[in-house]
Amino acid sequence: MIRRVLKALIAPPVHGRGSETRRRAATPSRSGVGLKRLIQRLKPTPALSRTREGSVVALFAAALALAACSDSAPQVDTSVYGAGDNWDNPGGDWAESHFSRLGDISQENVGELGLAWEYDLGTERVQESTPVVIDGVMYASGNLGRVYALDAATGAEKWTFTPEMDMQIARSACCDWANRGLAVADGKVITAALDGQLYVLDMETGAVVWNVDTFVDKDRGYTITGAPEVAGDIVVIGNAGAEYDTRGYVTAYRISDGSEAWRFWTIPHDPAEGPQESPELEAAVTTWSEDTRWDIGGGGTAWDAITYDPEFDQVIVGTGNGGPYPQAIRSPGGGDNLYLNSLVAIDRKTGAMKWHFQETPQDNWDLTATQPMVLAQMDVNGASRPVILHTPKNGFFFVVDRESGKPLAANAIVRTSWADGWNLETGKPNFTLETSDYSQGPKIVYPASPGARNWYPAAFDPTRNTYFAHVLDMGNLMFLSGDPAEAVHEKNFLNAGAAIIFTSDLEAAAATLPPPMRAAIEAEPTWQWVKDNPFTSELRAMDPLTGKTKWAVPSAGWQDRQGVLATASGLVFHGSVTGKLTARDSETGEEVWSVDTGSSIMAAPMTYRVDGVQYVAVQTGWGGGGWGFLPGYAAAYRKGNANRLLVYKLGGGPTPQPADLPPLEPAPAPPEQYADATPEMLATGSALFTANCSICHSNQPRAPLPDLRRIAPNVHAGFEQVVLGGLFKMNGMPSFADRLDASQVKAIHAWLIDTQGKLRARELQLQAEGKPLDSRSLTILSSY
Ligand code: HEC
Ligand SMILES: [Ca+2]
Ligand SMILES: [Ca+2]
C-alpha cells in the first residue's frame, strides 16, 4: 500500500536532453498529497488579491508583495520526491533523501560503469561532503569549508575558494577539519568555514558577496563542520563544540545582505544572568538542575542536521549532546536538560520553536540527535502522515510526525543499554539506568559515543519503503575520571569529563585495568554482550516503521562507515574506507558492481545528469572523529590520503590508483636526552602529551598527522618554537603558549625523546628479523 502510493508520487525518470527546472511552480497534485496542503496551495497569494484595487492600494500592494518575498513560504513542489538531473543540496532534494529518480544507470548496465573524470581536491585531510550539481555545474565543498566549482560533465575547473583563517582554530576541532557540504541559492554558493565565517559567494565567479562571523564568543571552543541550510530567503547555520565549552545555537541570515533574521539557542543560559532569550528557553531552564555548571557551556551544538521542511515552513534542527558528558558534572541531580539531543522545529519566519522531540533525555553518553534526517510522507496506522525518518546516535529508529513532533515509531536497531524501549504515548524512553548511569562506577554503555549512526548520510527509497544506512552496534565503557564536584572548566578546551574505552578493545584493555575496576566491569550484565560480540559494523536496508533489517552486509571494521545513495532504478551506492566503491541491488544487497579506487571513502556518493548522461560522483578522503587511528585495512594506510573527487559514467575508463606508500623506515635516531631528565619528568610529559597532543597525534605509523615518535633532528631542535611559538600554525599545528609553559613542553619533549629511542631500538630489531614495522596502539581514545 505504502509502496503503491509513493510510487505514484514519484515522477518517472526524464529521458533525453535538457535540465529540469530546479524549483517548479507549485501545482496541486492528484495523489497522496494531504488535503490541507492542497487548500493552502489553491489559496490566492495576498499580492494577487489586492492588486485589483485602486492605484494607492496598488502601491501598498507592491510594498506588501515585497514583504511577501520574505514572509511567504517558498514554493517547493514536494509531490516530486528524490533528485532529478540536478542535486540541489548535499541531501539531493527538498527531503534530503539521498535518493535519485534517475534510472539511466540500471541493474542491467551498471557493470559498464567506469571513470568519467577525476579531480584532485589538493588536500590530504577529511572529506565528508556530498557535492551539489545545478544545471551542469558541480559545487563541491572540501575540508575547512573550501569550495570547488567544476564543469559537471568534464571536471574542468571554473573557480575555487579557500577560506583564509587563523589555524589556531584547529585546536577547537575535536573531529578533524570536516565539512559536510554547501548550499546554493539565488545565484550564490554558501559555505561555512571551520573558524565560524559564513561565506556567500557569487555562483559564476566565486567572489565573496558577503561574509559574517557567526560565533558569539571567540574564547570558547566553537567550530563549524556542518552544511548551511537554505530556507526561502534565509540561510541557517549551526556549529560544533559540545565536547569543549560551548552553548549551542543556530543563526538565520538573510541571503540578500547577510543581516541576521533570528537566532535560536538550543539550551538555556545561567538564569542568574537574567531572563532567557525566549519563552521556550524559560520552559527549558526548569529541566536543568540548580547546580548546573553553566560556566562549562552545556553543549547542545547543532553540528550537522538542519533541514528545511517546506510543507510546514519550518526549519528542523538536530541538537547535540550535553557538555560535559556526565550529568553528575553538568546538571547534578538530573533533569531532562532540554533541548539537548532533540529535534526542534523552528518557524522559518519568526525563529520561534513550534515543537520539540527529545530523543535522549538526561544525556550522560554523548548520544546526539545531530545525525542527518530524511523527510517523507508515509502511511502510519492507516493515515498518510508527513514524517521525519531519524536514526540518531542513541540506537533507535524514529519516525516522527512533522506536524506535531510526536514519535509515531521508535524501534531499537542495535543493542541499547541506556533504554530498552520507547513509550510512544508519553514520548519518553524506558530508561535502564542500572546499566548506564556511571556516576557510581563504570558502566558498559551501548551504543558507544561514535553512535549507532553518525553523520554518514542514509538514503530513503520510497518506492521500496527502504532506508539504507550504515549501522554500528558497538558500546563503550564509561567512567568518571575524577570527582564530579571538583571538575574544573578548561577554557576553550576539551571538557568531556568521562573516560571511554570502546568495546572493540575492551577485553584487551580490561586486563590492564586496576583489579577492582575490572571486577566491577565483569559483573555488569552487558559484559556478556562484549564477550558475545564486541561490535557489528554493517550497511543495512531497513523498514522505517519497524526498524527491521531487510538485508545487511558487513563493513571492514568499526571505523569503516559510509554514506549512501539510492536510485529509483534499484541501486544502492556506497564507498568504503578500504577504497572500494560498490553498487548493490536495493532489494537483496547483492553486489552488482564495484571498483577498487585506492582511496578511502566515507562520504555519500550522489548522482546527476548533464546532456542526457547520468554520472555518479563521490569525494574521497579519510578523517573525522578519531581520525588519528587510521585502521590498517584503509586505503589511506597503504596509499596515503590524497583527496580526490571521482566521477563515473557508463562506458567510462579504469580508475587510476595512487601509488603505494614506501615501506616504513625505522624511526630516526632521537637527539640526546636532556641531562636533567628524571622518571618524574617523563611521567609528567607522558600525561601532558595525552591531555594536549594525542587527540591529533595518535603516534601511529602512517597516521594523517606526524607520528611524534619519528621526528627528524631539525624538528627536535625547533621543538619549543613549534609547540609554543606556532612555527607550523599555518599547517594546523596550533600554539600551546596559552596552556603550557617551557618546562612542561620540555617534559613532553623528554618523554618523546625517550619514546623515540625505544621505538627505534624495537624497529631496528624487527627490521633485522625481517618483520613489518607496524607499531600500533589500541584505539581507546574517543574524540567524538
Ligand atoms: C589540533 C591538532 C594538533 C594538536 C592538538 C597538536 N598538534 Fe602537533 N601538529 C599538528 C599538525 C597538523 C602538524 C603538522 C604541521 C605541518 O605539517 O607543518 C603538527 C606537527 C607537530 C610537530 C612537527 C612534527 C614533524 O615531524 O614535523 C611537532 C613537534 C608537534 N606537532 C608537537 C605537538 C605537541 C607537543 C602537541 C601537544 C602539546 C601537539 N603537537 C598538539 C596538529 C596538532
Ligand atoms: Ca540540510
Ligand atoms: Ca559529541
TrEMBL record:
The EC class name is oxidoreductase
Q: Quote the PROSITE patterns the UniProt record gives.
A: CYTC (PS51007)
User: What EC number(s) would the UniProt record show?
Assistant: 1.1.2.-
Q: Which cofactor does it need?
A: pyrroloquinoline quinone; Ca(2+)
Question: Is Signal among the key words of this record?
Answer: yes
Which segments constitute the Cytochrome c domain?
680-756
Single annotated GO MF: oxidoreductase activity
Q: Which UniProt keywords apply?
A: Calcium, Disulfide bond, Heme, Iron, Metal-binding, Oxidoreductase, PQQ, Signal
Q: Output the superkingdom of the source species.
A: Bacteria
Q: What protein family is recorded?
A: Belongs to the bacterial PQQ dehydrogenase family.
Q: Name the PANTHER family on file.
A: QUINOPROTEIN ALCOHOL DEHYDROGENASE (CYTOCHROME C) (PTHR32303)
> This chain belongs to which protein, by name?
PQQ-dependent dehydrogenase, methanol/ethanol family
Query: What does UniProt list as this organism's lineage?
Result: Bacteria, Pseudomonadati, Pseudomonadota, Alphaproteobacteria, Sphingomonadales
